[in-house]
Amino acid sequence: MKIAVLPGDGIGPEIVKEAVKVLNALDEKFELEEAPVGGAGYEASGHPLPEATLALAKSADAILFGAVGDWKYDSLERALRPEQAILGLRKHLELFANFRPAICYPQLTGASSLKAEIVSGLDILIVRELNGDIYFGQPRGLRESPDGLFKGAREGFDTMRYAEPEVRRIAHVAFQAAQKRQKKLTSVDKANVLETSQFWRDIMIDVSKEYPDVELSHMYVDNAAMQLVKAPKAFDVVVTGNMFGDILSDEAAMLTGSIGMLPSASLDKNNKGLYEPSHGSAPDIAGKGIANPLATILSAAMMLRYSLGREEQADRIETAVKKVLEQGYRTADIVTPDCKRVGTVEMGDAVIAAL
Ligand code: NAD
């Protein structure tokens, strides 16, 4: 089993190091090969997704990814910015299904900005389509406005579009995920305004006929944003497009207290996947040794489960993470009174001790 390790920028290298430490502490040994990506890729070879890095990602059984991005690259042309690496990997590897669980550990309810009774025991899964939508739709660009009130003025434009097979394949993934959970699927769209969303909704309804055991409901994205803070436990699995999913999954992340706790998986049709924390490269805390490595360690657990077929090892890591929380270990982002405040490395060590 070969794992491509792509630490990236900012806190990426610090948190990936801890996840690698945990993987190396397991009984089974994996082949781990590291390559630069994002700003680190740009520094090494002039492109955020160097050819050698892409080749490694393609040849590996799974990819463990840190995070990319730094403000110092903001002035680069868009195609060379670090964030293009993640978009490129998703596109080249056809990683179309993004799984983002949002779980509120009982020990961390105090870290949430919401009342404990609203979030305690929260366990929802956001399934976000990752390869289409307005993030990739062509045409896009800058031009002279061809019509309307501001005809002739400069304008920026993007295109929201979804092809039927794209919606069908994410629908199947989401229904199957719901089947393994509480069998409730909420499809989030903006069908009252957008043609793309009405089309998405029609296809969701059609695919639902193949999953009579799953209860499908629909919600407009603005309402979903409200319900996520009002009554998040009413959700089980949420399926939505690329842009709405980007925003809602960050919102769901904060319900749990810290974005530093949340793993994610992006899978292709064969369950090969890229595993990364839900957060970014956090340049504001990079190099300080205070980043929370648990989202990345939990991403490694998801990798063992979904791509490498090592369910038992995944369970071991997840149990170890629960144990360190019970023992009171906390990084700065989830700090509570009377806890044992630790840095990135100490948190990794605590997980290994708990293993
Ligand atoms: P961010 O997720 O990096 O940070 C948001 C806030 O959360 C910051 O205050 C940060 O300190 C904190 N935070 C994030 N992860 C943490 C952790 N593990 N432990 C403790 N605190 C943590 O989002 P941002 O500030 O909007 O973006 C920073 C950079 O990351 C940008 O360049 C952005 O493009 C990039 N980004 C990359 C990815 C990715 O690599 N997949 C995703 C999102 C953002």
Automatic annotation (TrEMBL):
Pathway(s) of this molecule: Amino-acid biosynthesis; L-leucine biosynthesis; L-leucine from 3-methyl-2-oxobutanoate: step 3/4
Principal location: cytoplasm
SUPFAM superfamilies found in the cross-reference section: Isocitrate/Isopropylmalate dehydrogenase-like
Binding site for NAD(+): 280-292
PROSITE patterns referenced in this protein's UniProt entry, alphabetically: IDH_IMDH (PS00470)
InterPro entries in UniProt: IsoCit/isopropylmalate_DH_CS, IsoPropMal-DH-like_dom, Isopropylmalate_DH
Gene Ontology BP, a term: L-leucine biosynthetic process
Subunit-level organization: Homodimer.
Gene Ontology cellular-component annotations: cytosol
EC code: 1.1.1.85
The family this protein is said to belong to: Belongs to the isocitrate and isopropylmalate dehydrogenases family. LeuB type 1 subfamily.
First-tier enzyme category under EC: oxidoreductase
Positions in coiled-coil regions: none
Note on cofactor: Binds 1 Mg(2+) or Mn(2+) ion per subunit.
The UniProt record lists the keyword Magnesium: yes
This protein's encoding gene: leuB
SMART domains: Iso_dh
Residues bound to Mg(2+): 222, 246, 250
Keywords from the named record: Amino-acid biosynthesis, Branched-chain amino acid biosynthesis, Cytoplasm, Leucine biosynthesis, Magnesium, Manganese, Metal-binding, NAD, Oxidoreductase
Positions bearing the site annotation: Important for catalysis: 135, 190
NCBIfam families found in the cross-reference section: leuB
Protein name per its UniProtKB record: 3-isopropylmalate dehydrogenase
Annotated ranges, domain Isopropylmalate dehydrogenase-like: 2-351
Subcellular localization, as worded in the UniProt entry: Cytoplasm
Residues binding substrate, per UniProt: 90, 100, 128, 222
